Each structure stands twice: as C-alpha cells, then as structure tokens.
Amino acid sequence: MRSKGLIDAKFKKLLGFEPDSPDKMVLSAWKKAASSVCKPCWELKYCPYGPLVENSPLFPPTQKEAIEYNEYLKTSLKSGKSVDGKPLDGETLKLFRGLVKKFDSTQYAKTIPVAIQASKCNVFGHICPVIFAAEGFTETSEFRRTGRYIPFKTKIRVARRDNYFCQECKKPLLDDELEFDHIIPLSKGGSSEEQNIRLTCYNCNRDKLDKVEL
C-alpha cells in the first residue's frame, strides 16, 4: 500500500501524535525512532516482549480491507453460513447484524504509509512496542552501533568469517570486490555490528535494496 497521500488523523493518534500533526513531521519522527532500534523478531528471531505486544495498539484495517470484511459479513448473513460452510448460531448472527448496521467506511484510514507498516508485528498484528521505546540499549555497557560506518576491524572479521564468498550467490570475491551488506537494513533499525554484516558481491548488494532477508 504505497501512498503519498495523507495520514489519517485517527491513525496519528494511535501512534502517539496529535491528530493535526503534519504528515511530514509524523513520518520523519517515526522513521527516526524506527532506525534507532530493530524489531526483535528480525534480529533475535523471537519476540521477548510477551504480554507487552498484546498491550501495544493493533494496526487498524484500511478502508478497503474494512469494506471487504463488511461484504463478507453481509454474504454470511444472507446465506446463514460462515466461510467454511458451517451454519451461524444465534449469537454470531446477532453480532454480524450489529457490525453491518454500525459499519461506516469513513472511520477507516484509506492507506497506511509503508514506513509505518514495517513496524507491524509479524504474528499478532500489533505495532511492535520496541518502536515506541526507541532506545539503543544492548545487553552490554555499549549502545548499539548505528550509522553506515563499519570499522575496519569489523570488515576484516566479516571477510574472514564469510570466507571471501558472496553470502547470496556464493561467488568467490577478490579484495576489491567485497561489499558489506547490512542484513537488517539501517532504515529498518539494523545496526552496524558484526552480526548484522555479511559479505555480498556488487550485484547482490544492489538487488537487495531495503528488504529484510532472514
């Protein structure tokens, strides 16, 4: 859902901004927060937040998604059956009728900016709480290293670790062909620590863009 349109006022409030905050300011602040941290499901391969995720706001459906769901409810009411063919009981029929009666498509945002969508929980659909915290702490006394600069010693360790092979296409690389790729892109909160750097060739590094490859 790429969009250059307005950010819905209700969605701004959900993210912690005033409803009348300028779109440009909201996106800039959100990108800054997201680039100083990283979703743990990307970096750690699991979520350490537990119940905190459930307390974080849910991503609301877009207007298009809400309309499609409302059409599903109306179809189910007409047929008396759910999508799997099972008959709807009395309570479900009452619930569906109430939802259809109260439905108002204008209460839903038409689009959600891609930069904000990236913070959606991959499993539950909540906004990842790490973005709201936006603190660059680690389990050591040091802050996580951000920014594009990669220390020379780190480059040497990565080159030796990856045995001078592109980690994407497996092509052997000469010294002047080494490209150092951020596994989790900087734009998505990836750090410049050794564990987030890998060797790639020029072509593979350019093809990746800002995708997260795990």
Q: Care to describe what's here?
A:
With 214 residues, this protein is mainly alpha-helical. It folds into 3 domains: 9-60 and 109-133, no CATH class; 63-107, no CATH class; 152-208, DNA Binding (I), subunit A (Orthogonal Bundle). Helix content is 39%, strand content 4%. The chain has 10 helices and 2 strands, in the order H-H-H-H-H-H-H-H-H-E-E-H. The chain has helices at residues 9-14, 23-35, 40-43, 51-55, 63-79, 90-102, 114-117, 129-133, 152-161, 202-208, and strands spanning 179-182, 197-200. A two-stranded antiparallel sheet has the order 1-2. The protein is elongated and about 70 Å long. The model has no long low-confidence stretch (mean pLDDT 83).
The parts where pLDDT drops under 50 for at least 5 residues are: none
- What does the overall shape look like? elongated
The total of helices stands at 10
Query: Helicity level, as a percent range?
Result: 25-40%
User: Beta fraction of the residues?
Assistant: under 5%
Strands, count: 2
Rounded to the nearest angstrom, the distance between the terminal CA atoms is 22 Å
Major sheet description: 2 strands, antiparallel
Summed over residues and divided by their number, the pLDDT gives a mean of: 83
Query: What order do the strands of the largest sheet run in, or round the barrel if closed?
Result: 1-2
Work out the count of structural domains.
3
**What sequence of helices (H) and strands (E) makes up the elements?**
HHHHHHHHHEEH
Question: Quick gist of this model?
Answer:
The protein is mainly alpha-helical and 214 residues long. Helix content is 39%, strand content 4%.
